[in-house]
């Protein structure tokens, strides 16, 4: 039995004094209103209306039950209102600082069409999962090794100069006899994670570059500024290189990629991003989807 629906019919009929008019107020057919009230009477064990007259007149028992029925209806209405507000409450997502504003806005519009309301908070990779843990964000796009990722972004090196070869080898950055300044490789904050940074450093050591020749920048802007003003190289994606007007090449000694997955406090929030909004998230990251996860 639908207790709330029966009480709504009971209250509407009692206020209008008519089963027909009360059903119209409740937004249901008159036979449905009659069945719901009859079911409520069976449950309560007593008649609510005197059916010996043409008008729907309350019995003494009906008058006694009416205040409780009204309270239940009001509570149900309040709950439905609160549910609508809760659905409109934004899902705050911690996202990489590399995500372009336009792509995030388009992702937000795509989500709204699915009645999902997103807000974004840009943060470096080391902070995004922590924002979920501390309940400052409901979900985060987190950095993971490419083999465990939902979204993958291949990485290479970009410079101002036009490349002479299809790839660039770190061993070619060793200082020669010309006395020219050593070319540095700049790692931006998004790639300052063990599964990217440490692999670059291992290659650096293997080919004999000094430690200072591979450095982590404070920001993508400062890294790009260093590259614009020198022959230095930026570790980045091909899409970032295009946005910055740089020439991009893969690295000869190693295949590198950013990997991304979702961390969320609730499975439904993760599913929104991994499944329903998967392509939109990929655009924000400049990513392809991993064949190995999902």
From TrEMBL:
Residue ranges of domain HTH lysR-type in the record: 1-59
Pfam families noted in UniProt: HTH_1
The keyword Disulfide bond belongs to this UniProt entry's keyword annotation: no
Keywords per UniProt = DNA-binding, Transcription, Transcription regulation
- Reading the lineage from the top rank, the first entry is Bacteria
> What family name appears in the similarity comment?
Belongs to the LysR transcriptional regulatory family.
Q: Kindly provide the name given to this protein in its UniProt entry.
A: LysR family transcriptional regulator
- The organism of origin for this protein: Amycolatopsis samaneae
Upper classification of the source organism reads: Bacteria, Bacillati, Actinomycetota, Actinomycetes, Pseudonocardiales
